[in-house]
């Protein structure tokens, strides 16, 4: 071997890598050194390949060790967690304040991989508190979109588990069951409504049911139910997307007037029934009319005579919503007075052609009156019957496209000096508006909504602006004005709207101008409610549905 080869030579891997390998030309000695470097480099590559082969095992081991340390840290956090030293009764109070009366909701859908449930991912202390504190389970809502027998069985088990911690005869006081669709049930098996509802009735005080027709019929066909403590009942029959004139509604109405389920309901005070058409002999139905304080038939078409006979029996009513239709002999209506001494809120949507329906009504405590009728004179006759102190009056005529002036409108409001809010689809004459703004009429009025003919819109706006200028804006009695503009050209509406916006910005009052609302669905919504029956809030929890 050439002895010179053992001498140090500047050639190394870094030098080679720094050169352009495809253009460098090496001498024989440099080639010999480069081959030695290649051998060493290949050994390094082989060693690294071996380490890479074992890397997953090393990584898995590191992950396991890390997870163990994380778990150990979590346990240490739990040990020193402040809530562990908080007395359970204080935690329970915190939970109760947090839910603020919102019901526990059990929405069950097959397409959900994780069914909402609150108690699977919380500490045992919190779980024990949540189960033992009745306030946290006092209101339950069940919504079912895709019914099946297995789902019903599991739901029944879940509800049973909720009731188990309570003493006999004690349990959640509010329950809402909403079954969507037809949810057909095999006629050869026990109907699910029996095991979903009946076992829990003794403790319920408020019950809200939205059920398919077959479910409603099964409920009404049941023997007398134990409704001893039930105070509020809302029953809604869904038929073909709530088409109210569906033949099934008549079947439901017939069963409703013949059922025995209400024979044991001494505490029932609030009743709402929806989606029924043309109830026959409903006034003779097995309902405890005399003890009701709140009645809502606003989405159940009732004949006028039937409605009047019902009102004659409901002597304790505080709030009432009705929708009537058809024609009746005036003698059947005016024979007897309807005396409702405690009635404070009445909403009556009338599609009937009976001119004397309001004549027999005597309600000296009435504070809020919403009515839709083509007969304005009958409202006047009712007001003339007794002293009345209405504060909110809404009068609509859904059949009048032109929102014509009524010669009796000013006479009606002149007899209602206590009005604070007045809403009407009729046109209010400019002379009447001036009397209102001057305080000659309705001295306490704060909110006015009425129809404005397009040819008078500028005069109306100028009159209100002049009133605000005289009163200095903030001292004006009328704090909100909504004008419904009859059909007009778009330039007229846009010009008037800009004028209104300028007045609103300048004086800080709620002044609005809207286009005519004819053709919209009319809603007569009561403000004074004995208890809210419609707006049932929902809270969804994340977790798994437990099994029995």
UniProtKB/TrEMBL annotation:
Classification via InterPro entries: LRR_dom_sf
Protein known as: F-box domain-containing protein
Record organism: Hypsizygus marmoreus (White beech mushroom)
